[in-house]
Amino acid sequence: MYRTNGDGMMYGMGGGPGMMGAMMSETTASFEYQYLAQMKAFISKAYKNDKYCDLTLKTRDGATLKAHKLILASQCKYFMQKLDANPDSDELEVTEVKKGEALKVIVDYIYTQKIRSGAISPEIARDVLKAGDVFKLEDVKEEAAIVMAKNLDEEIAVDVMTNNIFAGAVANNAFTFTANNFQLFLDKDHLKKRLITEIKPGLLCHLLSQKYLMLWDKSGLYLNAVEREKQLFFFVLGYVAHDVENRIDDLKSILHVLKLPLLIHHKILNVNVMGAGLKRPPEVLSGMLGDILDPYEKMTGTDNLATMFASSKKTGMSQSQRRLFADTCKMRYATVAHTCLCSDVARTEQPWAEKITFCPSGNDSRQTGYSSSSVIRSVTVVTCNKSLKEGEEVGDSNQWDRRVTGVKMKFEDGSEAGLGDTEEGHHTRRMETYDLEEGELVTRVHAHYPPALLAKKGGHYQSEIFSLTSIHDISFVTNKERKLGPMKTSDLPLEDGLTMKIPGKIKHHEKNCPGSFYWLQGFGMEDVKIKDSENETARSLFPIWGFKAHFKVYSVKQQEFEFTSGFKKHYQFSLEGLSENPLIDDLKDLDQLEKSPVHEVVDLDDESEESNSEDEGPGMMRGNEDSIMVVDSEEEGEDEESGEEGGYRSGVAPLGFGGKGGEDEPIEIESSSEEEDEVNGEKEKGAEDRLNGKAEAEKTQLEEEVSSTSTTDKRKRKESETNEKDTSQEPAKKSKDDDVKSD
Asked: pLDDT tens across 37-48, in order?
């Protein structure tokens, strides 16, 4: 079946090469592959064992690594050029790489064309990325970039913002991280220097425009609006002064992302100060910045910031210009300070269950002890069993009667405040003090009760519990997730019964704020009447919260501000109103967060706009210039709670509450211009009648026009159908004539 042809190759009967030739070819390829695999394994083993190496690599940190010249030069152009320039050298300093671990990742990849899992740790990822760029190894760069993106910190964030290999969501995460922790970058000189030297003006504008750009003091509280913008302003001056020749033209754009009303009203932004720092004549800076300073020339501390740039008639600006200036009037997160006497209360063992909102009744017996200007540094809880006479022992009849009778607080500024029985007195008195670390804030308060009392449903016991009048002990949870309390000694076992925290409605509106924007400011007490008892009263103990937000909650008792229709009430405030520290002590105060004009006639005035973001959107629709439109203020999903807060129900805890959530209460949506409506009620009624009459006339005219149009349309359609019929017959007639001629 096979024959030879004198050349040693076997042929089939047909004369062509046979299967044996193909098999020999495959055998040769297999042998070569096996040979190369053995050689690669031998070279890799020699590299790992430092055998037969003829080159020593050194990094800037003094680390050394042995390798083979032939392998490095054949696989990397960088090493080829270095070795060609000095072929007899047995040592090469790689000054571009700082750490020896980073260089080892590079050389390992050159030998194996693989990156071992875990070889790039977060500590060396930045150096590996730079080394991969030096040696032009894209796989190494990408792997290092992935590690950096997953392990953002202050150092890595600057690299992610400035390196083109990062884009999209990864780069945005770095900007968000830097904005959330901007205080760390200002406190550490080398980080601040990196921002000043490495960030380009356009990127800096994007960073400083972030609503969640946060600065805080040593106590852990976010800075007030004026102090925050002041620090940012002087940072901008330092940034421009670093390279004034190339950055002076970007000064106006960078300043425009700061809150200019605050800087100008408080005389922080001053061309004389800027001229001295930038070594430029004040008159030159004044002319350069006139476009962004002049619109605030007539601004006062009582102007409504929400409407300063809402009208094109008043400002003479285009829509895009007004949007830019309106953004400077919107506050960042955690800006406006408040004090809140209300709390969300829920059973601790059912954190997912519905919550009720407890607010004090506000009678004459109310006492409060808190500080809105200084944070708590220690809390002392006092308990007594006043039914136990001196000399008696605790027994079944009186062991249930120990209660929290007083609370004492020490603040960072040295002041103190106390409520109830905090001094030496009763012989059963016990007390325990809990100290807070610097930067530590209490964010939750827990009330403790005997298990048997918590198990009872309805009736007198539950009325006392959910009225906060029978608290047996208290514990605290801080922003550092540290739990303080309850007391180590107790007459009987206690369980964590209730959790009290800042109202979820407030937390929901500020939910995108990073960190803790709320904290325990103190406590309050008042006498309340117990249900199912004729004369029995008890004293409730409730927490007092402080919080800072980008909006302002107006108390129903203080509605002096001149609100404007079409804008949510809580987004309307003046510069002077930023420092008022409103007191929230009623459910109606919380309902003000939902107040805005509903079905009002609003002058939109040339597409006057307000942000439509999830937290900022007003009840206002955009339209053409001088248009009049009826608007609905409700925002989609506004009443939805964040996932961690569970369902939310407003209402004071009923005295017989059993822990399953409060009842729904109807929310009365009022106009933000209620006083104006009352004064001009008759005028509005007359205007409404005139509008109704005009609407009827327009409706009649429209019907007549529709009828006329309908008749005309019918006639036109009939004529069109006739024309189409004639047109369709012409080609057929022409075709018939052509056939006759052909015949």
From this structure: 888 888 889 999
Tokens encoding 715:
């006639």
Q: Residue 434 pairs with which residues in a beta bridge?
A: 379
Q: Are residues 383 and 477 in the same domain?
A: yes
If you average pLDDT over every residue of the chain, what do you get?
79
Provide the pairing of β-strand 2-4 with 10-12: antiparallel
Residue type for position 32: E
Of 93, 98, 142, 94, the residue nearest 123 (C-alpha): 98
Residue 398 has pLDDT above 50, yes or no: yes
Contact 645, 355 (CB under 8 A): yes
- Residue 485 near residue 306, CB atoms below 8 Å: no
Q: Please state, in angstroms and rounded to a whole number, the distance separating the CA atoms of residues 63 and 101.
A: 8
For residue 104, give the amino acid letter: K
Contacts of 126 (CB under 8 A, 6+ apart): 144, 148, 155, 156, 159
* Closest C-alpha to 178, from 130, 148, 212: 212
Rounded to a whole number of angstroms, the distance between the first and last alpha carbons of the chain is 75
List, in sequence order, every beta strand (DSSP E) within 580-701: 583-584, 600-603, 628-631
Domain check: are 651 and 677 in the same one?
A: no
Rounded to whole angstroms, the Cα distance separating 673 from 669 reads: 12
CA dist 325 → 5, 229, 329, 514 (Å) = 93, 16, 7, 25
Query: Does residue 575 surpass a pLDDT of 80?
Result: yes
ω into 731 cis (within 30 of 0): no
Q: Running DSSP on this structure, what letter comes out for residue 248?
A: G
Residue 738 lies in a domain: no
Pairing of the two strands 336-340 and 583-584: parallel
Task: Please tell me whether residues 614 and 683 are part of one structural domain.
Answer: no
| Spatial distance between the Cα atoms of 158 and 177, rounded to a whole number of angstroms | 10
Dihedral sign computed on CA atoms, order 4, 10, 14, 16: negative
Residue 720 lies in a domain: no
Domain extent for 24:
2-45
Please indicate, yes or no, whether residues 679 and 561 belong to a single structural domain of this protein.
no
* 638 and 693 fall within a common domain: no
Residue closest to 288 by CA, chosen among 298, 278, 301: 278
The bridge status of strand 64-67 relative to strand 336-340 is unpaired
For residue 67, give Cα distances in angstroms to 44, 47, 72, 73, 110: 10, 6, 8, 11, 10
Is residue 286 one of the residues assigned to a domain?
Answer: no
Whole-angstrom distance, CA of residue 18 vs CA of residue 23: 9
Q: In Å, how far are 72, 79, 129, 676 from 82, measured between CA atoms?
A: 10, 5, 21, 82
In a domain, 12, yes or no: yes
Comparing C-alpha atoms, which of 672, 384, 422 is closest to residue 552?
A: 672
Higher pLDDT, 458 or 128: 128
Radius of gyration (C-alpha) of the chain in whole angstroms = 38
Strands annotated E in 454-605: 473-478, 483-484, 495-501, 518-529, 537-549, 583-584, 600-603
Please indicate, yes or no, whether residues 472 and 589 belong to a single structural domain of this protein.
yes
Whether 592 and 695 map to the same domain: the answer is no
- pLDDT tens for each residue of 301-314: 999 999 999 888 77
Phi, psi angles (nearest 5°) of residue 690: -65, -40
Where do the H-state alpha helices sit in 217-372?
Answer: 225-242, 244-247, 251-255, 260-265, 271-278, 282-293, 312-315, 319-327
The token pair that represents 19 in the structure block: 């299967």
**In the block, residue with structure tokens 């430029």:** 280
Is the same domain home to 564 and 610?
Answer: yes
Q: How many domains does the chain have?
A: 3
- What pLDDT, on the 0 to 100 scale, is given for residue 489? 85
